[in-house]
């Protein structure tokens, strides 16, 4: 049996501890005299006693491990006998994870790999997706997990006006125009009053650039923890062991008092957006907190919002997390009950949030029409998105019931009336197939 590697753990570029495995259990130990502000996780404040996780790598350290497409690339690049265990992957990718915590093999100099990508040229190219996938294959040690292939890129200041880092994302042919889809959904979130990172779309609509929000204005790394990590569960359980009630409980537990009221309002608004836009992928890893110290923990900006149900394979998908034990789209009444009982919001505040979401959809309609005109292939997808949004806005109303209400004619309002021309066929639930593009192995 090979010996588990010893890894050095840094927080905000400061060496704070070591990580290893003993008898299959993960063991993290802080070094002596580490400052309290240099904690690696809200679940692991600085202390002398080691933190042991009997199931292997602690959920926090699993948070940014490469999965699916990225993991396959690493295996292909390094060979079938490469160490693709959690510890092995962390040793390869831990220096470039989201957030301020970096992990490298023991006694290895801490360096952050920089991508040579010219982001401005990539976004302006007519084959941006292929260029991004080639970039992804060349940047094998960048640990970014998720359903779409992603690569962390620091723009070249000589080629672009941006000075901070972005995440570049693209989709695959079986989920067409996913980048435009997410771009427009994030625009709705932004207009609804949620904080959302700056987004840029490639000229051919195939790549989305999202400004990283794990940096402050001075470029300093911020801590990032998703709710899967905060709940202490394996990322593979991000659908099975979470709920909207868990999100509320964790928010009220860990967000600092000065920011809690904003956080619960934003969480409620984000639920409304996810239901209204039919984002069936709002699982535990797609909610997060950011902070520079334990005294300023805040709800993270909205991210990874996509209208999933417009794609034939996922047409019958339901919400990723249950609410009051149920997973149904027409949940307006339950959402309002949840907002009052679990988030402490008044009826007037919740009604204001809902009104902002409805107004946000209206504000984004011209953009939907613009991209449908710019990208003819997106036109039919745009129509389906508007149909989904129209029904979603009905389903978040307090009196919503399945099959009731008359959806607003969003297609007509956007000037996109007519048949969608998209072939629909009955498909098996993709979540039941762990090897599918939306299965847990691909996220």
UniProtKB/TrEMBL annotation:
Keywords (A to Z) from UniProt: Kinase, Transferase
Entries under InterPro entries matching the protein: HipA-like_C, HipA_N1, HipA_Ser/Thr_kinase
UniProt domain HipA-like C-terminal: residue ranges: 144-362
Stretches the record annotates as Disordered: 397-443
Keyword set includes Transferase: yes
Kinase is among the record's keywords: yes
Domain of life the protein comes from: Bacteria
Annotated GO MF terms: protein serine/threonine kinase activity
GO cellular component: cytosol
Gene3D superfamilies tied to this protein: 1.10.1070.20
Domain HipA N-terminal subdomain: 7-103
NCBIfam families per record: couple_hipA
Protein name (record): HipA domain-containing protein
Source species: Caballeronia humi
Origin organism lineage: Bacteria, Pseudomonadati, Pseudomonadota, Betaproteobacteria, Burkholderiales
């Amino acid at each position: 049996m090979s010996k588990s590697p010893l890894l050095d753990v840094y927080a905000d570029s400061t060496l704070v501890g070591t990580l290893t495995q003993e008898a299959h259990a993960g063991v993290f130990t802080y070094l002596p005299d580490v400052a309290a502000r240099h904690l690696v996780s809200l679940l692991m404040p600085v202390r002398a006693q080691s933190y042991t996780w009997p199931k292997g790598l602690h959920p926090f350290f699993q948070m940014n491990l490469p999965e699916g497409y990225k993991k396959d690339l690493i295996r292909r690049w390094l060979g079938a006998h490469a160490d693709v265990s959690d510890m092995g992957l962390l040793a390869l990718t831990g220096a470039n994870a989201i957030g301020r915590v970096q992990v490298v093999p023991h006694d290895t100099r801490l360096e952050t790999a920089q991508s040579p990508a010219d982001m401005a040229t990539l976004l302006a190219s007519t084959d941006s997706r292929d260029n991004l996938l080639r970039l992804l294959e060349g940047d094998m040690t960048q640990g970014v997990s998720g359903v779409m292939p992603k690569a962390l890129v620091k723009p070249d200041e000589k080629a672009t006006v941006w000075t901070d880092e972005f995440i570049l994302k693209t989709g695959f042919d079986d989920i067409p125009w996913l980048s435009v889809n997410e771009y427009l959904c994030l625009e709705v979130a932004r207009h609804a009053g949620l904080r959302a990172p700056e987004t840029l779309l490639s000229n051919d609509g195939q790549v989305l650039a999202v400004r990283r929000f794990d940096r402050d204005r001075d470029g300093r790394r911020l801590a990032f923890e998703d709710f899967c990590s905060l709940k202490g569960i394996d990322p593979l359980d991000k659908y099975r062991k979470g709920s909207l009630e868990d999100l509320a409980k964790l928010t009220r537990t860990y967000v600092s008092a000065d920011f809690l009221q904003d956080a619960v309002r934003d969480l409620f608004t984000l639920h409304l957006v996810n239901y209204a836009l039919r984002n069936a992928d709002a699982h535990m890893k797609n909610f997060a907190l950011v902070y520079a110290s334990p005294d300023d923990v805040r709800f993270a900006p909205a991210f990874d919002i996509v209208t999933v149900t417009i794609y034939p394979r996922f047409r019958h998908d339901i919400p990723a997390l249950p609410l009051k034990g149920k997973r149904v789209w027409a949940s307006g009444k339950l959402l309002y009950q949840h907002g009052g009982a679990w988030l402490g919001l008044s009826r007037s505040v919740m009604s204001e949030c809902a009104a902002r979401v409805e107004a946000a959809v209206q504000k984004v309609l011209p953009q939907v029409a613009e991209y449908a005109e710019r990208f003819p292939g997106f036109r039919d997808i745009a129509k389906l998105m508007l149909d989904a949004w129209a029904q979603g806005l009905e389903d978040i109303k307090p009196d919503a019931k399945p099959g009731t209400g008359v959806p607003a004619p969003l297609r007509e309002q956007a000037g996109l009336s007519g048949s969608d021309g998209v072939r629909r066929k009955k498909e098996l639930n993709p979540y039941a197939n762990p090897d599918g593009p939306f299965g847990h192995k691909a996220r």
